[in-house]
Amino acid sequence: MGSSVSHAAAPPPPLPSPSPPPSSVGLAAALPPKQDEKAEPEKVDWLNLPCPIPFEEIQREALMSLKPELFEGLRFDFTKGLNQRFSLSHSVFMGSMEVPSQSSDTLKVPTAHYEFGANFLDPKLMLVGRVLTDGRLNARVKCDLTDNLTMKINAQLTNEPHFSQGMFNFDYKGTDFRSQLQIGNNAFYGGNYIQSISPHLSLGTEIFWLGHQRKSGIGFAARYNTDNMVATGQVASTGIVALSYVQKVSEKVSLASDFMYNHLTQDVTSSFGYDYILRQCRLRGKIDSNGVFAAFLEERLNMGVNFILSAEVDHRKKDYKFGFGMTVGE
Amino acid sequence: MAAKTSLKGKGKAGKGSKGSEEGSSAAKCVKEWSTWAMKKAKVITHYGFIPLIIVIGMNSEPKPQLYQLLSPV
C-alpha cells in the first residue's frame, strides 16, 4: 500500500493521479476512508461555541413532531403573494372547537369563521396580522433593532373589554448565549437566559412574575443535541417536569417521545410519535398515555396545493375528531 | 406602543379618593391619563394594524397593483 500512498501525495486528490488503470481501482477504494478519518477528531474550540437555540424553542423538534395543529371540521387556507415580501391570506373554518370545561367531558362548540390576514416579511421587520369575523385581531411584530437586539410584540385584541392580551419581548443574542426580557399585560414580567456549554449541550433558566396574582416562578432547562438526536429536559417551580427525546432515524423519518409530569395536579402524560417527511407528503402520528391516537397528513397535490387530513381519537372520553382541508399558496 | 403593556381596568379605582390628598393627585392624574392613552392606543391598533400592513406592503418594491389586492389570481 506504500506505493499507492505516495501516489496520493500531500493533498489527497479524489481522483487517482495518472497511474495504470488496474491499480487506480485499488486507489479509489483506498482513498475515501482515509478522508473520513481526517474529518473525525475535531478539536473543540471552547472559546467559540455556537449560538444556542432560543429558550422558547428548546423543545421545538419534539413539538413539531408530536403536536401538529389537529382540528375538527373543514379548513381552507388561501395565501396570495403580491410581492416577495407582502402577501394576503384568506382562511375559512367550519367545525367544532373545543371549549375548556371544568368537568372531564369535552365541550364542543360549533363555530364557523373567516379570517383575513396580511403579512409583510422583510429580513429586518416582520408584520403579521390576522382578523376574524368576530372582531378579534392577532398581531405579531418582529423588528431587528440592531444586529443582536430584536424586539417582538405579540397581541390578541378583542372587542370585549379586559380580554385582550399583549406581550413585548426583547431578545439579545450574544456569541454563545441568548437572553430575553418579557413584559406582558396583567403586569407579567419574565426573563430567560440560555448558554452553550459545549458544542452539543446548552443550559438555560427562566424566571417570571405575575403582578396581579403575586405569583412567581423559576425554571431550568437543558438541551443536548447531536446531528441525529435531540434530548431536552425542563423543570419549573410551578411543579412541572418535561422531558423529550427526538431521534432522527433517517433523512425521511424521525421518532419522538415526550414525558410531562405536573406535581400539583399529579398528572402524568407521555407520548410517542413518528414523523415521516416524504417527497409528496408529511405524515405525523402519535399515541398518548391517555389512550389518545392522533394522525396528521399533509399531501402535496400540486405546486402550492396541499391537502390536509387530521384525526384524533380518544376512546376513553368518546371524543372523535376528524378534519379535512386544503391549503393553497406558499 | 409601549402604552399597550398593561391593560388593567383598575385605573378607575383611583377616581374615588381624588379629593382627599394633594400629594398623590399628580400620580393619580398620570395613572388616569395613561389608562386613557392605553385605551385609545388599543382602539387605534385594533382598527389600524391591518391597514398599516397593507399600506406598507403596497409601498414596498416591486410595487404591486391595486387590483391585485382584490382579485384571486
From TrEMBL, chain A:
The keyword Ion transport applies. Its main location: mitochondrion. Keywords: Acetylation, Ion transport, Membrane, Mitochondrion, Mitochondrion outer membrane, Porin, Protein transport, Transmembrane, Transmembrane beta strand, Transport. Residues 10-23 have a biased composition (Pro residues). It is found in: Mitochondrion outer membrane. GO terms for biological process: monoatomic ion transport; protein import into mitochondrial matrix. Residues 1-42 are annotated as: Disordered. Residues 24-33 have a biased composition (Low complexity). It is a multi-pass membrane protein. One of its GO terms (molecular function) is porin activity. One of its GO terms (cellular component) is mitochondrial outer membrane translocase complex. Belongs to the Tom40 family. Central component of the receptor complex responsible for the recognition and translocation of cytosolically synthesized mitochondrial preproteins. Together with TOM22 functions as the transit peptide receptor at the surface of the mitochondrion outer membrane and facilitates the movement of preproteins into the translocation pore. Directly involved in the pore formation. This is (wild Malaysian banana) hypothetical protein.
UniProtKB/TrEMBL annotation, chain B:
It is a single-pass membrane protein. Pfam families: Tom7 (PF08038). Keywords: Membrane, Mitochondrion, Mitochondrion outer membrane, Protein transport, Transmembrane, Transmembrane helix, Transport. GO terms for cellular component: mitochondrial outer membrane translocase complex. Coiled coil: none annotated. Its main location: mitochondrion. It comes from the Eukaryota. Belongs to the Tom7 family. This is (wild Malaysian banana) hypothetical protein. It comes from Musa acuminata subsp. malaccensis (Wild banana). The lineage of its organism: Eukaryota, Viridiplantae, Streptophyta, Embryophyta, Tracheophyta.
